[in-house]
Amino acid sequence: MTVVTINQPFWIKQAVFKNRLVKSAMSEAMADKNHLPTDKLCTLYEAWAKGGSGLVITGNVMVDAKALGEPGNVVLDSADHLAEFQTWAEAGTKHNTQLWMQINHPGKQVIKGVAEEAVAPSAVPFEPALQRFFPMCRALEESEILEIIRKFARTAELAKQAGFTGIQIHAAHGYLISQFLSPRHNERTDQWGGPIENRFRFLREIYTAAREKTGPDFPIGVKINSSDFMKAGFSEEESRYVIGELDRLGVDLIEISGGTYERPEMTGKGVRASTAEREAYFLEYAEALKQHADVPLIVTGGFRTLHGMNEALQKHATDFIGLARPLAVYPDYANQLLLGRASDFSIKSIKTGIGFIDSKGILELTWYAQQLHRLGSGGRTKPSFSPLLSLGLTVWKNGKGVLEQRRA
């Protein structure tokens, strides 16, 4: 029997993945003023394609120009500028790399000043400490829900036309689909709220509409939380139900994550020592899920050693290894792993020594974003870049407020 390692290929429909390594989505914030891909974005993705991952997943591409999560979001909602997206796809699919576009709607997770309003399943505010950074939201009308579903399908169709080899529907991390799934944020009493069967309807209809537009052979994945890790939030039991339904519907690949920006478990915050020892944050959940679902899985978050990655594959806890922050610093990290040359990777804590800044963890996000911009400019990353210099550059460029308004 073949021993599965990160070097083994994988097939999904007509797509061939040259290995089991996935560059998971990270926010690049590199769109131009018209929300279109830039040369910097193409350069960044060409570097990742050269870096060796079998699958590269883009950061958020929004389905509606009126619903931006943060400055610099790319939007694909019409065919007017498809050439720019084709250039991006050409760069990211070099070296036989699969390139999937992550498509998303932020719902009420829109930073103040970025969008005119925030919408959600229900008019439920965030916790007070977080709400001050977001406009108050209003509940969507049913006609608006149906229109957003059409927008997701349209973006999926356009991504295929542009040359992306698949899409990933973002249903995690507290964005709009995640808000619909969560009983904490979805208090509707119509067909879109209440029991999990109804709260799942929004995601189900998005997938069905996207599949209709892209055809049976185009790969469609979903990123979903194992749990929101919040009282009265989306639970593991509900997550298992949703993934089972997605498997039944024919979704091609599930990426397991967890948490929201109220409870950022996807960053490793609050991870138990036993979990850290096993490396991947959501591996235990994935192992249990594998007993009941046949859909291929990506587990992202926490993998830092070749041994840990191969062990997870050999135990059939996951089919792919998702990596994010290591590839923001070392874009060729996948190649080094595949060649057996990579040393164990540890994520250092980005600390300035200023308690107020360090307690929020915001600088860590901007530090990694600055590394991505260096790659996009054709330069090299600076793993030893001073957090204090990073802080100064961030404030100089964007003002003090950005330290409280940045996200992954």
UniProtKB/TrEMBL annotation:
CDD domains: OYE_like_2_FMN
Source organism superkingdom: Bacteria
Flavoprotein in keyword set: yes
Pfam family, one: Oxidored_FMN
One GO MF term attached to the UniProt entry: oxidoreductase activity
Keywords: Flavoprotein, Oxidoreductase
Domain NADH:flavin oxidoreductase/NADH oxidase N-terminal span(s) in chain numbering: 8-341
InterPro entries: Aldolase_TIM (IPR013785), NADH_flavin_oxidoreductase (IPR051799), OxRdtase_FMN_N (IPR001155)
Protein name in UniProt: 2,4-dienoyl-CoA reductase-like NADH-dependent reductase (Old Yellow Enzyme family)
Lineage, opening ranks: Bacteria, Bacillati, Bacillota, Bacilli, Bacillales
